[in-house]
Amino acid sequence: MSEKKANLVVGNSKVYEKVYGKVYGKTYGDINMDKIKKLYSEPKIYTGGVDINSWDDLSEDQKTKSLDKIWYVYFSFRHPVSGSLKRQNPIKAGNEFKDKKNRYKVLEGIKRSLLEALENGFNPYENDSIEKESDSTKIYTSKKAIEIGLQIKKNELAETTYRRYEPRIKDFIEYLEKKGLAFKNINEVTKQVVQDYLDKILYETSARNRNNFRSDLSSLFTKLQLRDIIKNNYIKDEIEILKSNPERNKTFSTKLLENLEKHLKENDPYLLLFIRFVSYNFLRPIEVCRLKVKDINISDKTLSVRTKNKPLKTKIIPDLLFRELPDLKKYRPDDYLFTSNNSPGDWNIKEDSKRDFFTDKFKKIKDSFDLGKDYGIYSFRHTYITQLYRARRIEGITPNEVKSWLMLITGHATIKALDKYLREIDAELPQEYSKYLKR
C-alpha cells in the first residue's frame, strides 16, 4: 500500500493509536496495513437527493425541489469505544444561494478543507484539535478554537449581551466554512481573512455595525491569546476602528417634554412611572425592567440594580420620584416592579422582550405626537441629564466640578465616558455671543 493511501486510510498515526489502541490494544506499528479498517470516510456532499453530475439532465421541477432542501457536507469517523464508523454532524453551508453553481462551490471548498484536516490528523473525538508530531501542543481548528472562545464569553457576558454577541461570532464561523478555513489550523485565519470579512460587513451594512463585529471578534481573540490557542490578537492591534456616526435619540424641547408628560399622566400613568426611573434615576430601560420590589429600600430611599458597568449598583431615589412610588408593602419581594399588567407581579419572560413591551407602548404615544425614530424613551434620559448639567453650570460651577458631581448620578464609570456622552447630547452650549459678531 502506498504511503499516500495509507494516510488516507488511517489518518495521522497518533490519532490512530488513540482510536484503535482502546479497541484492539495495539499500537500503530503492530497493525497490518492491508487488514485495517478505515478511520474515516471521505467527505461527501448531499445535494438534495439528486446526482449532481446529472444536473443538466434534470427537469426544472427536480432542480427546484433539490434546491429547496438543505445541502451539506457529511462524513463518518470511527468511534474510539465501539470501533464502528459513526456519522458526524453535517456541515451546512451555501444554502443562502438559490443556484446550484454557487451553493456547490461553497460546499466543495468545505469538503476539500475537511479532507485535508482529516489527512493531517483531525479527530472529532479529540476536541477538534490536531496534535503536533514534534510535541504535545494542540493546534485547534479555527471552528473549534472560536467555539471555545464563544463558550468562555457565554460564561462572562450577561444574557442579553450574549444574545447580541453570539450571532455575530457564528456568522464569522459560517464565513470561514464558505472560505474552506473552518477545519484548518486557527493560525491560518490571518489578519487579511478577518479584514476581508469586516469589509463584507461594511459593504452590506454600515461602519458602525462593522465596528461592532470587529469589537466582538477582538474580545474573543483576546481570550484565545490568553489561553495560548493563538499567538497574538492582530484584530485589536492592527485592524482599525472606522469613523462612524453614532445613532442617539434626540433630547426633547422644554415644551415638547411638558406636553408628553401631561399626556402620559392623563392616559398612561404606569408608563409614566416607568419613564420616571429613566428620567430621575437615569436608569436604562432594560435596567428598569430588572427592578423587583425587594430592590427598593423604602427606609433608605435607595434602589439596587444590575447595571451595564457593574454587577450591582446602589442609587438614591430622589424625592421627586420617591413620592410617586406605589405602596409596595402589598406586593411580594420577588415581584417585578413593572409588568404587562400595569402593576408589580410575576413576569418571567426575557429582558429584551420586557424592554420591547415598554418601547412599543411609548411608540404609540410618540406616534400620536408625530415624532420620528430620532425620539425614544432614551430621550428622557438625555433631556434630564442635560437639564442637570446646564442648571449647575448656570450656578457658576466649573465643567469639571459638574461632571464629577454628575458621575455619581448618571453611573458613568469614568469622566472620559461622561464627557463623551455630554458632547454627543450637546449638554454644554455657549452663552449668547451676538455682541462678538462684527456687522
Please report the number of helical segments.
17
Note the beta-strand portion.
Answer: 5-15%
Order of secondary-structure elements: HHEHEEEEHEEHHHHHHHHEEEHHHHH
Q: Poorly predicted ranges (pLDDT <50, ≥5 residues)?
A: 1-35, 130-136
**Major sheet attributes:** 3 strands, antiparallel
Q: How many β-strand runs?
A: 10
Mean pLDDT: 84
* Global Rg: 30 Å
What structural class results from the helix and strand content? mainly alpha
Structure write-up:
It is a single chain. With 439 residues, the protein is mostly helical. Helices cover 49% and strands 7% of the residues. The strands form 4 sheets. A 3-stranded antiparallel sheet has the order 1-2-5, with helices on one face. Strands 8-9-10 form a 3-stranded antiparallel sheet. It has a two-stranded antiparallel ribbon with strand order 3-4. α7 (191-204) runs antiparallel to α8 (207-226) and α10 (254-267) packs across α11 (269-279). Residues 1-35 and 130-136 have low confidence and may be disordered.
Features:
elongated, disordered N terminus, mainly alpha, three-stranded antiparallel beta sheet, 439 residues, single chain, 17 helices
